[in-house]
User: Fold this.
Amino acid sequence: MFNVKRHFKTIITSVLALVVSFGILGLQTQAVSAQTTQRNTTAKKAKYVFMFIGDGMSATQANAAEIYLGSLKNSAAPELVKLNFSKFPVQGLKTTYAADSFIPDSASSGTAMASGYKTVDGVINMDPAKKVKYTSMAESAKKSGMKVGIVSSVSIDHATPAVFYAHQTSRNNYYDIALELGKSGFDYFGGGGFNQPTGKNKDQEDVYEIVKRDGYTITRTKEDFEKINKQTGKVYAVNPVLDKSNAMPYAINQDSASLSLADFTRKGIEVLENPQGFFMMVESGKIDWACHANDAATSIKEVIAFEEAIAEAIKFYQKHPNDTLIVVTGDHETGGLGIGFAGTKYNTSFPLLKNQKISYDEFDKVVAQYRASHTPETAKIEDFYGVLSDKMGLNNLKELELNQLKEALKVSMLAASERPTDDKTYLLYGGYEPLSITVTHILNQRAGIGWTTYAHTGVPVPLYAIGQGSEIFSGYYDDTDTYQKFMSVMKLASK
Ligand SMILES: [Zn+2]
Assistant:
């Protein structure tokens, strides 16, 4: 027979047990959050905050540079030469997906990091409906009295730098982004130029002039750059040499007229250091471009130049260890870079990459010159043997490689409008100069490097941190949490 009383008693006991255990759990949760809050409220504010973003840099881009440096040092056995930021004591891993895709672009992933919200690809620091403007951590830092610096090796109105000071429905609104730069009130901009200084149709007032009226000193030479100091006031230091899309040149091409990302970082520290502290974001934007073009040697040299910029922050950290935070991360992975290629199985030969002396787009110029002086009928791959060996480190071609190069040259000899647009052509060349990308593909594959795409991928991206407040950056979290963590260590009220 069913015992109502006993059953009731059992229910009461179970409910009590549940209440008690929930109570304990609740207390535990409270204790944990109190602990966290306590840690956050008693922890010192990070006064000098560096955020380094390697565009398109995930673990493999950093690891490829470490294998390359290690292989040059020791060809007998696997040895890594760790990058300075790889040795940071705190490391985390973060997801990068956008509001509309597992594979983000720089605008959506940048917005997530800078302002803590997911948005759709292409949008700069606004909601997916393109109605609400978000406030970035750089804007909050500036409002709190800190000085703010933004540095990029690509044009300063490009998506990654833009998410820190602009709010636009499209990343392609370069002119409007540049106008927002002038109104930001930030203290230091450095690196690339404006991408479209007179607008899309080149019919607007020169935005450099407008930014000057906004109170910025603009420098374009090494001499004027050296003269910049704390007394200069708001400043925009444009690199003396501007390459394609008004970006800084690739490190691999070693243009001595150019300043380096390290130079811009060092100058930023000099200008921004003040009793109220600073926030400086430094982007290496062309790791991404090299990886879009599947050019490993160029990407590796960019990562090394990025490391040299980070070294400037480390020197500063060593002088102010209790006040400084350095965070290094990427915004997404680009290219689907893999250490390992089907044709080389378990082998790698990274030292081969050392013999590549110029980037893919410098080789494009060689191809363009050749196209201008030859017809498709007279073109032959043998004419390239010298430059392939001297500049791209490619010789002793195997039959398969030679055939790939011959096929690519045929397409490279066609005018852009005459080139095939079928899927096969895209898979082979991805819209790049067919001969150039075939050269880097062959060289990379010989080295034991594979690529899956000419676009971005959705793999998680590591984050490396050292200094004041760095411990909260450990764990596996999302880009949007990165924003919360920065706001917490800068003692700024987040959304
Ligand atoms: Zn990016």
In short: Residues 339-450 form one domain.
